[in-house]
Amino acid sequence: MPESLAVRQAAPQRPLYATVVAVRPLAPRMVRITLAGDGLGDFLYAGPDQLVRLFLPVGEELHLPTGSDWWGELQAMPAGLRPVVRNYTVRRIDRARRRIDVDFVLHGDSGPASAWAGAAVPGDRIGVLSDGARYRADGADWQLLIGDETAVPAIASALEGARTPVHTFLEVGDEGDVPDLAGEVNWLHRSGARGSRTVAALRGLSFPAGTPYVWVAGESTLATTVRRYLVNERGIDKDRIYFCGYWRETPAAVRAAATTDREPVAA
Ligand SMILES: Cc1cc2nc3c(=O)[nH]c(=O)nc-3n(C[C@H](O)[C@H](O)[C@H](O)COP(=O)(O)OP(=O)(O)OC[C@H]3O[C@@H](n4cnc5c(N)ncnc54)[C@H](O)[C@@H]3O)c2cc1C
Predict the structure, then answer these.
(1) pLDDT per residue over 58-116, tens digit each?
(2) In angstroms, what is the span from residue 61 Cα to ligand 1's centroid?
(3) Where are the domains of the chain?
(4) Equal fold, 3-130 vs 142-247
């Protein structure tokens, strides 16, 4: 497991089988998939950026690790059976009905998770593993929530529960591609290097008095660029910033040269 994703949680978990029960387009490039399963009644949920690892079938059948050393078991599986693992956010949990909602960015068929979500229908099976949350705004007087399309589910949940003033910046390809969010959002049209529009917009923001909490996630360059700016130029304490590269953009030249051979492991 990548160290950056190691998180606090109550007990070791193992992947659970879940079934797609609803597929609802939220916007042209985002779909909400509702998953149901007996084990989801006990699914650990610790906050708005609750991480769920999704185990996607590689063939007709889904084979899941059975113990808490899911990573070790996964590596020992034959390649033809080993599910592909990708990280997502739980947008909503309904323990009584044993269901969770996951919102997927549809970025085409180059990624197994996006391809799976784009074609998902009720009855499809998938594996899910709760893996903790990182958002911790306790003690903050105000918050800065920043991301791209992939951070929309977590930011939407954080906005719903926020008890302090929040400034939200979302750098996206097209605002119409993702669902609208409650509250005031600064929608920034991506251009140039990832994160550059966000930094330009942040330069115009007068920070409120008091202790901030910053949560920034999305494409890796966006997350690191924004954090660097906030620490180096705005003097925000590193301890007050959570940042995470949710995915890494593949340079066009690498994409063009890519073969179809993929290592089916966690992103
Ligand atoms: C903690 C965490 C929570 C996350 N939550 C969500 C979530 O709720 N919803 C969500 O949609 N994503 C979320 N992500 C991001 C998601 O895991 C990645 O986008 C992942 O790479 C998608 O897997 P894939 O199989 O579709 O593509 P991959 O096989 O990983 O990548 C294939 C190609 O697609 C490109 N690519 C990957 N993601 C994107 C994208 N979003 N836009 C454009 N190109 C892309 C890659 O650069 C690569 O060239 C989260 C990531 C983390 C770490």
Answers:
(1) 988 999 999 889 999 999 999 999 999 999 999 999 999 999 999 999 999 999 999 99
(2) 23
(3) 3-130, 142-247
(4) no
Torsion of CA 98, 103, 107, 111, to 10 degrees: -30
Any atom of ligand 1 within 6 Å of the Cβ of 107: yes
Atom of ligand 1 minimally distant from the CA of 148: 41
Residue 267 CB–ligand 1 contact under 6 Å: yes
Give residue 206 CA to ligand 1 midpoint distance, Å. 32
Classified as helix, coil or strand, 16 is strand
- According to the 3-state scheme, what is the secondary structure of 184-213? CEEEEECCCCCCHHHHHHHHCCCCCCCCEE
CATH class of 3-130: mainly beta
Q: Which residue of 4, 45, 105 sits with most ligand 1 atoms within 8 Å of its CB, as the best mutation to test the pocket?
A: 105
The whole-angstrom separation of Cα 152 and Cα 147 is 7
* Low pLDDT (below 70) residues in the chain: 1-12, 255, 258-267
Check pocket membership of 144 for ligand 1, CB cut-off 6 A: no
| Predicted local distance difference test score (pLDDT) of residue 151 | 98
CATH 3.40.50.80 fits 142-247, yes or no: yes
